[in-house]
């Protein structure tokens, strides 16, 4: 138990070094090497995820060679992501000016994962950022065609279309037939459900004078599900108060917690539940539980308190815009953090 606790402390230290006001990638890398070398640490800590975080930090600092090495270590440690983590390496190669290597790696990934719409999305963004709108357009076209053909299970049609239109504009080209298809698709899927599957125009024809139409079932202002979220600092306070929480994989660290929260939000959104984040402050949770005669450490108590936060209108809306700061507090854009290609987070280790 002592070793596990020390490993978890080291994991928290690594994350603090990577996401603090002055990130220290080199110190984080040294601690991560020590952690990865410790027998059994991989069963307690997310070594692959930490190396991936390190790669992101190096890339954010413009240290792309180190970012490539860190991402390779993440893959060796068993990183599972969508798209494959090698897509990040291809992006780094592109940013380094190693165009031929990047082209070959992206092409190999497309041959290996021809149905991965996230790959086409990320490749398109990478080439677009590199200023090659012709290449970006090819990748984004393939991605948009795939998303439309499959009914957009990943919810990427809007983003792919937006990115593609940026490249079309940069190339001085008008919107084409594919963009018309995307518009029609989004218009169809933006229609909101009403009782008896009637559309709003049909309801209006049959309503009595002065009678209000029924509310929109999927009104984004009506939060149907609130996901409990312990912001940075609050989870650590909770773990200090209730050490037994560390036995739950999704609460071993803030990294694991934010992944679990993002997964829950994505799942609920897919079910049409309009989820939002319910930020939990430990002291307030404890005081509420005292008044209600509840045990604040129990999951059902946390869920009930999250529901109360939602009822009081104190939730944080989700998802943020793709270019807005991520909800988790990392300081990165949502599209480069929880809303990026690793939004389909792997399950935590048991």
Question: How does this structure look, described?
Answer:
The protein has 350 residues and is an all-alpha fold. Helix content is 56%, strand content 3%. It has a two-stranded parallel sheet. Residues 192-223 and 342-350 have low confidence and may be disordered. This is SEC-C metal-binding domain-containing protein.
List keywords for this structure.
350 residues; 3% strand; single chain; globular; mainly alpha; two-stranded parallel sheet; 15 helices
Number of strands: 2
**Helix-strand makeup class:** mainly alpha
Radius of gyration: 23 Å
Q: Biggest sheet, open or closed, and with what strands and sense?
A: 2 strands, parallel
Provide the β-strand percentage band: under 5%
Question: What is the count of helical runs?
Answer: 15
Overall residue-averaged pLDDT value? 83
General form = globular
Provide a short characterization of the protein structure:
The chain has 350 residues and is mainly alpha-helical. It has 15 helices and two strands.
Write the layout of secondary structure elements.
Elements: H1 2-19, H2 25-37, H3 47-60, H4 64-76, H5 86-95, H6 99-112, H7 117-129, H8 133-149, H9 157-170, H10 177-189, H11 200-206, E1 225-229, H12 234-241, H13 254-270, E2 275-279, H14 282-292, H15 299-311
Parallel strand pairs: 1-2
Helix pairs in contact: 1-2, 1-3, 2-3, 3-4, 4-5, 5-6, 5-7, 7-8, 7-9, 8-9, 8-10, 9-10
